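Recap quiz, item 2
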Amino acid sequence: MNEKTMLEETMLDTPANGEEVICCPENLVYEKPDTLTDTPMHYCPGCGHGVAHKLIAEVIDELGIQSETVGVAPVGCAVFAYNYLNIDMTEAAHGRASAVATGVKRVLPEKFVFSYQGDGDLAAIGTAETIHTCNRGENILIIFINNGIYGMTGGQMAPTTLPGMKSTTSPFGRDVDTMGSPLKITDLVATLPGVYYATRCAVNTPNNVRKAKKAITKSFEYQKLNKGLCFIEIVSNCPSNWKMTPVQANKWLEENMLPYYPLGDLKVPNDKEK
Amino acid sequence: MKELKLMKGNEALAEAVIRSGCDAYFGYPITPQSEVLEYLSLEANKRTGMVVLQAESEVASINMVYGAAGTGKLAMTSSSSPGISLMQEGISYIACAELPCLIVNVMRGGPGLGTIQPSQGDYFQAVKGGGHGDYKMIVLAPSTVQEMVDFVRLSFELAFKWKNPVMLLADGALGQMMEKVEFFEQQPRKTEIEPWATVGKPKTRERNIITSLHIQPDKMEEINLHLQKKYKAIEAEEIRYEAINCEDADVILTAFGLVARVCQKAAQLAGEKGIKVGVFRPQTLFPFPYEALSKLASSPKLKGMLDVEMNAGQMVEDVRLAVNGKTRVEFHGRMGGVVPSPEEVLAKIEEKFVGELV
């Protein structure tokens, strides 16, 4: 509400110097979603987290489910997600977000529950919780941000770090012979019967942002219908720890991350179930 | 009309869980307490609609408890020593986030994989922290199957009163043995919504956040000071203990849980030999009854205390702190799943105090 008042004040303050007034309610094309708080985000410039948060907030607004949604934040860069999303949230221990979300959903089956986790959280330390939450077909949404690196702790190798990719703990590049290959965990969970919908998106281009938003909307709609687990991987970037500018990072993502983690649905509800 | 039953400790505990109106149980099988999960799987959901879920690990169990407890519901888990070790991280988070829940530890002998036989080797872990950081659980130590039942209901009451995890610290023998037990009436499931719970934010209030992360040192210290203040208040209000024939005793046996009953028998045997032996049994291990024990230590007739435990000497440290040098404190412990017999406790009394008693 305060936000709107401020906006209106700005419009009134526009000097009437003869120029055409374009800053008026009729021309408003974009508003911050209500479910996004006014807290300035701590994310680095160009980071995909901000966009992903905004999409969740927009979808919650559009579906009108703010009062029925409980989110679970991870340990990682998104540890402060509860500062930005104006919904009830719980901050989980590292890797345990899907177990915490299970606990919430089991006692509040009528509410919308999602966890938001990074690659280290979901695909390394929390692998057991991820696999079993998916396998039980918990009726929740897991949003998985994959940027191939540990952001919060300063750029160490993640389970999803690409072959040859340098990090502070693979300074000569990831050697798959000794460090293993990048884990395609979304492909893995897509094979489980409990998973109803698994898809891989990105937020590097306007088109991909639109697709990611659609996936989030669909997932909450499926959750309302008790369809089971929905899993959205968002291939993202990390300009700071990739040591690139935001533009370079998005280019690198396009050229290196997406060939290894191709975008698209990995599991779609079959027609009979629809 | 009293409802008396002959039941195994673990099953009686599970029955009490259902009757307490518990909303959710998350657990993983481990001997000697798997009957809790089994009994609840069979009985709970059909009777009260309670959620019972077998998790993939104790790590997952405690984090499911964290999630469910955050919604303001009555949530719990149970396990035995190695499983409780796996839960320590989660317990630390729950304690910091100030969520009410019940954690049952039916202790077995350790360290390591140890044995499935009874032990009290997790006293330190339960009472002194176990996980990282400065936190306390309220710890209740039942010594009968009846207390396994009564303390379940009490645990939930204390957990919500103090917004704190409560541990019910039993042992493998209490879990496995059968005794006569009287049950309380079925309590209704809770319908009241806690103001702090994460249940979905209505327009009428600010969002609720459950977290243990406060990255600014001054804020984190403030949280710690608040927790310590709460623990002081718990110490002032919630101490429970039983003192049997301690007032004019020559020797006081101190013990918790099952061992306190062994000590009662030993005291009886000593009485037959003309030695007056009292038994002091803390029912709450945190808060520990320091003051009551300190008063008893000043009794002019008292020759000393003998602390008996199924471990290498853990609670005895608190007994010594309480007594603070006012009387001699001896220790007798058995480990690895061995339960001390009344006869050996009596022999220990005679060995340690006999010269002074004649």
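The interface with chain B takes residues 66-70, 72-73, 79-80, 82, 86-93, 96, 99-108, 111-112, 128-129, 131-132 of chain A (CB under 8 Å).
The two ends of chain A are 39 Å apart (CA to CA).
End of item.
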